[in-house]
Design brief:
The structure is a homodimer. Chain A is of the alpha/beta class. The first copy, chain A, starts with 16 loop residues before the first helix and ends with a helix. Chain A contains nine helices and nine strands. In chain A, the strands form two sheets. In chain A, strands 5-6-4-3-7-8-9 form a seven-stranded mixed sheet. In chain A, strands 1-2 form a two-stranded antiparallel ribbon. The interface between A and B is large, with 69 and 64 residues. Chain B binds a DNA duplex through α1 and α3.
DNA sequence: TAGATTGTTAATCGATTAACAATC
DNA sequence: TAGATTGTTAATCGATTAACAATC
């Protein structure tokens, strides 16, 4: 796993990878809060709701917002705005997806990505039949990938191809300018240092679930 | 961790969470190796292939195998067997899935889980029509969940329900004996301490991809 | 003011990496 | 034996937690 580089940041502070991973959970929790509820919330309340440490919550929030007020807490709406801004949920990133099998088509159809600022513009597959779509998104044959990716300046590639094809797909994407890869294939991808590969590691999740059962039931 | 049942059996050591996450990657890589290749492999070779540290690989492998031989390396087949044994890929765990939307049906249809020792026996959904299936697995109405889960002694629950329903589903599963939850819903789940909740956190992955782009393109 | 709650600096913990000894 | 490669003990690094000072 490669760490994100933190070299040149501007106004926004750098956050650790672990913090970055928790930020969507805060946003999620805050937006789900009933509208009529209190306009402020304490770190303690957030921590309890998300099963986190109180101090951890404060440190995390300090990295993205310009602070709460002692005795009062954080303004819910301000915090939501700060988190959304930090996570870039307002500007949309375009992405392509490669491998339109069941998982690929499910992701193409998933509307939730929109709210995270991700827009999958198209899927690609080796045997895409003319006019194929999923969730309203076109599925093109692989031949069209280089042109579309370069022309639309796509920076994010999602790989849902079979493991054997994943490295090849990764290479194809990155040679056409993709800088970040979201890999659902159970394969390690080798890419240049400036490319971020994020593995959605189902096997690892499963390993953790099963090890827990081993110890819970022994 | 379990001690060997008889004296000869090597006692499985405890592994850190981080190590556990990497184990499937080793297994994956080793099984993908061409059959005619060398029967032994060095930690260095594995490390290079998976972009890991050499020492890290050795430490990880030390936790699951009874060791390589200096100057020779690790026996590929032995290592595969040790990893599979440790990860429990031979004994099958049954699971149920709740929420038969697009993602849920995609997971129900995904054959890859079999090789990880996971068998999803059925899906459940609030509006499952009579006789519905996905990937050959039946999809039942929620009312049938308690009986089936308790009767088959299901210990793993997969949640692909909408965020609003996720907590309720979690409660339903755990009150019927489920001990490990694989949560794909973008919601934090509160569960008792003895329950493991593993979040497949798409929003967090996305956050990492986009932050990388921010810094890569600034 | 007193009490609650924030933010920061220091201590602890866990995981990775480095140094090195063991061994085939 | 010499060299490669393993395994272990020690040092470093990063993240979490604790202690405490600041402030509304």
């Amino acid at each position: 796993m490669r760490e994100g580089e933190d070299g040149m940041e501007k106004a926004e502070k750098t956050v650790s990878i672990q913090t970055l991973k928790r930020l969507p959970a805060y946003l999620n929790y805050l937006t789900a809060l009933p509208k009529d509820e209190n306009a402020n919330i304490s770190a303690k309340a957030i921590a309890e709701a998300l099963s986190l440490g109180e101090i951890q919550v404060r440190k995390d929030l300090a990295a993205v917002s310009d602070g709460g007020r002692p005795k009062v807490g954080y303004g819910v709406q301000t915090l939501i705005a700060d988190l959304e801004a930090f996570l870039g949920y307002h500007d949309v990133s375009d992405a392509v997806l490669v491998g339109a099998g069941k998982l690929g088509r499910a992701l193409l159809s998933y509307e939730g990505f929109q709210s995270y600022g991700l827009n999958i513009v198209a899927g690609f597959d080796t045997d895409a039949r003319e006019g194929a779509t999923a969730g309203g998104k076109p599925i093109f044959p692989m031949e069209k990938l280089p042109d579309l990716v370069t022309r639309l300046n796509i920076r994010i590639g999602i790989i849902t191809a079979p493991a054997e094809a994943a490295q090849e797909v990764c290479d194809l994407l990155t040679t056409n300018g993709v800088l970040a890869i979201w890999n659902f294939a159970p394969a390690h991808l080798n890419a240049q240092k400036n490319i971020l590969v994020r593995n959605e590691n189902m096997a690892a999740s499963l390993a953790m679930l099963r090890k827990h059962l081993d110890s819970a039931m022994q």
